[in-house]
Specification:
With about 210 residues, this protein is α/β, with parallel strands linked by helices. The protein has a single domain, classed as 3-Layer(aba) Sandwich (Rossmann fold), CATH 3.40.50.300. It has a 5-stranded parallel β-sheet with strand order 2-3-1-4-5, with helices on both faces. The longest helix is centred in the middle third of the chain and has 25 residues.
């Protein structure tokens, strides 16, 4: 019997293995009888994909941190309207590759904007829809860099100092909200990380199984 719909986002440094773990988590939830929708933020809608191209691939465009943050918010607003809310109304689980926490960390902790003001804008952009659970795949900078064996996008090209602030930001946000934001060691094998994520999800939503 399928479980009630929930919203999970997976976040962390690029190179942490988010894409693979989202696929594995969706497969695992599906094996339990749940319908699962996966998406990426920004993206997963025509408007979101257009914003994503500007944000990540247009190296010729310099964006102020506030402009960057607002473009992410616009993409997220469309993602919520077109994908996430309809899926949850159908009773589907949603697993998103990033969500509001990414703005708080990337443009806030690492980019110099006030994280609380970002959260306030995020409340408007999402209509208050927040994940039930956020999983942060934590990897050290060396591991993340080694795994990025492709051309780097605009954010990935900002150097080790920026990436260090990102990691510190994710850990700081998790420390403030440990019940909802859970850290998983992303340096382990793919199978070990998947098992750890499943354990976190069980603990959060399936306590009767313990």
């Amino acid at each position: 019997m399928a479980d009630a719909a929930r919203f999970i986002s997976i976040d962390g440094l690029d190179g942490g293995g988010k894409s693979s773990q989202i696929r594995l988590l969706a497969d695992w939830l599906g094996s339990r009888g749940s319908r699962v929708v996966t998406c990426r933020d920004p993206g997963s809608t025509p408007a979101g994909d257009a914003f994503r191209e500007i944000l990540l691939n247009r190296h010729d465009l310099h964006l102020d941190a506030t402009t960057e943050m607002l473009l992410y918010m616009a993409a997220r607003a469309q993602l919520v309207a077109e994908v996430i809310r309809p899926a949850m109304k159908r009773g589907d689980w949603v697993v998103s590759d990033r969500y509001l926490l990414a703005n708080v960390v990337y443009q806030g902790h690492a980019g110099g904007l006030d994280p609380e003001r970002i959260r306030a804008v995020g409340e408007i952009a999402t209509g208050g829809l927040m994940p039930d659970l956020v999983i942060v795949l934590d990897v050290d900078l060396e591991t993340a860099a080694r795994r990025l064996d492709r051309p780097l996008d605009k954010l990935e090209s900002r150097g080790d100092g920026y990436r260090r602030r990102l990691r510190e930001g994710f850990l700081a946000e998790a420390a403030k909200d440990p019940a909802r934001i859970r850290i998983v060691d992303g340096t382990a094998s793919m199978e070990e990380v998947a098992s750890a994520i499943q354990n976190v999800v069980r603990e959060a939503f399936f306590s009767h199984e313990r």
